[in-house]
Write a structure and sequence with these properties.
This protein is mainly α and 500 residues long. The chain is 64% helix and 3% strand.
């Protein structure tokens, strides 16, 4: 192996180890750490973030990359090494613009903000979180300035999660989505509403946990290389090859919430578990982008988990397990119940027809915060106003409104659009999957997901971050990310359920 390439890989492996250590600390903070540990955890994460940044942005990496560009040009452009050099060069160019001081301050600020958010949401008191969010927003504005000049202040933040995508492109896609989804929702609102009262009950945590484990085991989530725990807000994290962890949460007034949470996070987890071992301890050992990642989670949560085929197999078992609530509920009624379309307060519980509206709302608020047109102190009122405009409902308190998501406390401004983009990619991939595996609906009715997972492993998972997201989608489906397949999916699904 080229000596410079070998040295680069050795440094990147050390960086990956440091990132993994930070992931362990962050996971522990959100699962088992006592509340009193927030100050120390913030300091630990700050130190590790600074050391990681310094190591990755060292002049030596720049020297190695300069010497390797010719090596990459002589190789197959799709080879692991050529892509490693390309992706590392892109990330190095970005990270060298950011100061180590900012990195350390940001890591500590977000660690403190996460615990403040948990306390504020518990008390439904935004004021308790406000100063922490003001700090995070200020740091994100400073972050954007590292990349000036830009077309839009939001672009550098979006690029962290969706490389190469611009704010104006997202707005264009969302404009098309908004028009069609609002039209669909209005059509549905004119039809008799389906009943989901049998779901809105306390099914008990133990049974829900066991059934969720059964489902995601059948999906292919590998328990030898992962585990599931409880968290205030479900998430997936990667400590390193062979240790991919997911979390779920339980709502005492919703008997399927934790199940769909587990399915969603298992989609993320199986993506990470499927990345080629050859890419471990490098910048390629992660997803291509968050939209691609969300396409996997939303696919298993919705296109699979909310399908009639899925429940044809699983409902007899679930009905027997939850007989107290479901004994007299036939499959068709249950299927319609879990797919009920109704404007709701909580994003992660939203139906597929209204979900993207929650994302559009958050995108507009994030852009306004970054542009300085919205002050953090005015965020609760702005949130409530947009909820009324978009969904026709107003949150009764901060916990069910502006405090419902963990993302801002983690500094994940720029992340939310990828959820809606992930929906689009999931449907785009699904159409191609059905072309390649015509028997898939029958397989799902039999509880067999092996062909589906094998297809995803080959086309998506194994490649990690080797390919840019638009490049990957184009390569697999023949076109870049487009809303049309998702709109077709929604129209067909809800035409059947609501007799449109």
């Amino acid at each position: 192996m080229n000596k410079k390439l070998m040295e680069l890989k050795e440094i990147l492996a050390e960086v990956a180890d440091l990132v993994g250590a930070q992931a362990v600390l962050s996971w522990d903070q959100q699962t088992y750490m006592p509340a009193g540990g927030s100050d120390s955890r913030g300091e630990q994460l700050s130190t590790l973030a600074r050391i990681t940044h310094d190591k990755f942005t060292s002049p030596r990496i720049g020297e190695l990359l300069d010497g390797l560009h010719r090596t990459a040009s002589l190789q197959d452009p799709n080879s692991d090494d050529a892509r490693l050099i390309k992706v590392t060069s892109r990330e190095y160019a970005k990270q060298t613009k950011i100061s180590s001081e900012w990195v350390a301050e940001y890591a500590q600020a977000t660690a403190m903000a996460q615990d403040a958010w948990v306390a504020a949401r518990t008390e439904s008191n935004f004021a308790k979180f406000q100063p922490h969010l003001e700090k995070v927003v200020d740091l994100k504005r400073k972050y954007a300035e590292f990349f000036a000049p830009y077309d839009h202040v939001y672009d550098p933040l979006l690029d962290d999660y969706e490389p190469g995508l611009k704010t104006k492109e997202v707005k264009t896609i969302f404009s098309r989505l908004r028009e069609e989804q609002v039209k669909l929702i209005k059509e549905i609102s004119l039809k008799p509403q389906v009943d989901d009262s049998f779901i809105m009950k306390d099914y008990g945590e133990s049974k829900q946990w066991d059934f969720g484990v059964e489902v995601i085991t059948r999906f292919g989530y590998d328990w030898q290389n992962g585990r599931q725990d409880k968290a205030a807000h479900p998430f997936t994290t990667t400590f390193g090859y062979g240790d991919i962890r997911i979390t779920t949460r339980f709502l005492h007034n919703n008997g399927v919430s934790s199940l769909f949470s587990s399915m969603h996070e298992a989609g993320h987890g199986m993506y990470e578990q499927g990345i080629s071992k050859k890419l471990r301890r490098s910048v390629l050992f992660t997803g291509a982008s968050m939209a691609i990642h969300e396409s996997q989670s939303r696919m298993f949560e919705n296109l699979v988990g909310r399908s009639l085929e899925f429940w044809t197999f699983f409902y007899p078992r679930y009905q027997a397990l939850m007989a107290e609530h479901l004994a007299d509920v036939p499959l068709d009624k249950f299927y319609k119940g879990i797919n009920k379309v109704e404007p709701s307060l909580i994003r992660v519980e939203a139906d597929e027809a209204t979900y993207n509206l929650h994302i559009m709302l958050r995108l507009e608020l994030e852009i306004a915060l970054m542009e300085g047109k919205l002050a953090v102190k005015d965020l609760p009122d702005a949130w409530n106003t947009k909820m009324k405009d978009y969904l026709g409902i107003t949150p009764p308190n901060d916990a069910k409104g502006v405090l419902q998501d963990i993302h801002w406390s983690s500094g994940y401004i720029g992340y939310f659009p990828t959820y809606a983009l992930g929906n689009l990619v999931s449907a785009q991939l699904w159409e191609k999957i059905l072309e390649d595996i015509p028997a898939l609906p029958s397989n799902i009715r039999s509880g067999d997901f092996s062909e589906l997972l094998a297809w995803l492993r080959e086309k998506v998972h194994q490649h990690g971050a080797k390919f840019d997201p638009q490049e990957m989608v184009q390569k697999i489906t023949g076109s870049k990310i487009t809303p049309e397949p998702y709109l077709r999916y929604l129209k067909k699904k809800y035409t059947d359920i609501y007799n449109l």
